[in-house]
Structures are given as C-alpha cells and as structure tokens.
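[audit] Reproducing an earlier prediction to check determinism. Same input, same settings, fresh worker. If the tokens differ from the archived copy the diff job will pick it up downstream; this log only records the rerun itself.
[audit] input (419 residues):
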Amino acid sequence: MTAPEREFDIVVYGATGFVGKLTALYLAKTGGDARIALAGRSPDKLLAVRESLGPEAQFWPLITADATSPSTLNAMAARTQVVITTVGPYTKYGLPLVAACAAAGTDYADLTGETMFIRDSIDHYHKQASDTGARIVHSCGFDSVPSDLTVYALYRRAQADDAGELLDTNLVVRRFAGGVSGGTIASMLEVMRTSSRDPAARAAMADPYTLSTDRDAEPDLGPQPDIGWRRGAQIAPELSGVWTGAFVMGATNARLVRRSNALLEWRYGRKFHYAESMSMKSSPLAPVAAAVGTATNATVVALGSRYFDKLPNRLVERVLPKPGTGPSEQARERGHYTVETYTTTTTGARYRATMAQQGDPGYKATAVLLGECGLALALHRDTLSDLRGVLTPAAALGDALLDLLPAAEGVTLETTRLN
C-alpha cells in the first residue's frame, strides 16, 4: 500500500516537553533532508524550542495541536507521514491521536509503557489502521525497544543459522545508570490507577498474553511470573555467581514481546517462553538485594493495583516530577544501560543478544530510540514489514532497526552464539 504524499515526513508532537525536545534535538542532528515539523499546545513555547535546536531546525514549521481538541489532531495527522508523540500519560491523552492517525492512514510512534492503553488502542483502532495502511507503533523508547529488538535479533540469528525456534528466552538488565523519567513514573502510576479502578483491567494485567492478537491461539506454557528472583546460572552458565531480581518494567515489556511473536505468526516459536529480570551482581549481599527488591516490587504492584485510586491526589502529585523537567545534560550524558538476552533453540543452540547505549535510559537514550523509530517509518519504508495496524517495534520495524541502530548515537547491538 502506497502512502499518500504529505507535507511533512515527521511531526514531533509534544515537542515542548522534556523528552519531546530531546527527540527534536536528535532529529535536528540526524534527520538529514527529512521534512520535520514541531507540534504542541503553545505556539510561543514551540518557537522557543525551535530556536534552541540549532540552524538545522530554524525553518521547521510549527503546528498548534491539543489532545483535548480532536479536530487539531485530525488536521495534524492529515499533513504528515509520521507522528512521533511524547504526550502522556497515554491513558489520559493518547487515544484521540491514535484515532486521528488510524483514520488518516498516518504512521505513529510513542513511548508508552501503559499496557491497558495499548490494549484499548488494539481494540478500538487496529482494524481501522489496518484498513487505512497506518502503522501504530507503541513503546518506542527504553520501554520497550531493547526488549523487543534483542529478541527479534535472536530470532533472525537463529533463522540465519537454521538453528530452530526460540524456547526459553530471558532478558537480564546487566547495567543501568540514570533516573526514571517523569513520563515513565506517570505511566506506571496510570497503570496502577487503571487497575485499581477496574477489576477487569486488573485481571487482564495478570494475563501474560494481555496484548495477544488471538488469546485462544496462544500456547499454554504454564506459569509465567513477572516478578521473581533466582540465580543467574538458572538463566545461562555465563551468569554463574550472579543473582537476579524483578525488573520494574518487566511485565510491560514481556507482554509487548509476546505480542510481537503473535503478530509475526509465532515465528519465534510456539513454545517461546519469555521473562525479564535485573542483575544484582555477585556480592555476598546480592541474594538479599535480589529478594528484597523483588518482594518490594511485588508488594507495590499488588497494593497499587487494588488501592492506588484511594490515595489523595495531592500526595500522588508530590511524588511526580514537574512537567517539562528532567536531569541536567551532564547527568543525561553519564547515564547508560546494557541488557543481555539469552535464548536456547529447539536444536539446542544457545545465543546471547547484547544491546547497550550511552545516555540516561529514560531521557537521552529514549530520545535516540524514538527518533530512530520515526526515521525508520518515514525514510526507510522499503525495509519495513508489510504489517499494518497496532504493532510493536519488532513487528513493524525489526529489520530496519537492526540496520539503523548500530549506527545511531551511542548504541551497540550484537548477537553471539554461545555453543
């Protein structure tokens, strides 16, 4: 399906927010000849952002658009090939823009980590987006590109080696330095708010296949806990001596990765089993840290999913970062992460995919990932999958990102056969 000619290649919506501005700055440095516009509620703030981006962006058009005014979103979506949006929490503000892009046949990329928002997006707009040719690609930042793409890279490597399908697959966050972005915190709180208000949503969140294309077609692999702690050697011999505990975004990431497998018609495998954890290293206190961290995570999730809506709004607002704020440039530059994803295939082959990135995961690294996803949608359409509708980074952009990200600022991505 050929997309209609549009005025812009990419519109960055939410450009006056902290991560929106970082994404625009990244595109100003790397976007080349891409036709880019900035969008948000305030023309004055948009102008100030554009002036801060350097000479490459000085003639980028400015678009006034507001999540509370669907007509402005419809007009914006009709003018561009791709909308990149950083306006969250997405449960509150996201669906009208998804609707606009689905109706216009416009590709879309966001940073959401809100599982039930993605489920709502699927239920309401997957069919329409499929019909109009739109790619609605959720979770294009640190949540959940490293998870989704390392598994896709393992699948591609095993496929190239004729090594069979993926079986037990585990992502381990090996190194992490940086703050948690205000957007991520807001998303996490929104997930708990939704679960605490809606028993059906709470039940859906407990299902490992919440985001599946066809729940009845999914295999029964037994318990697939999102929160646990164990020795690293139970994951891979290379992690001997390491202890792992719960990773705060593991539940969200895992459901997205399982959706990728379903969208790809279970090419990873019908017995593909996926989980995420965080390394607590190998000190004498590591098992205690893993147990305490995991128990704390489990308690917060259990209580929050039932009682979060009972908390006073003023208390919640006090723990949230103020809108438009974030760490200093020096702190953003010091941040980094490394994830390792291990798998065993049906032929007994073992692989590891390693993805690392310099830059605070929630801010600089996320801006790079989101920017590259937008560029892939806009400028590398011949390398994208034929899928349309509500998609995942791997299902929509997998091959394109495998080509683009190793050349992106501060990113490394490689696969290794271990036996």
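[audit] rerun output stored. Observation attached for the diff report: Residues 299 and 305 are 10 Å apart (CA to CA).
[audit] end
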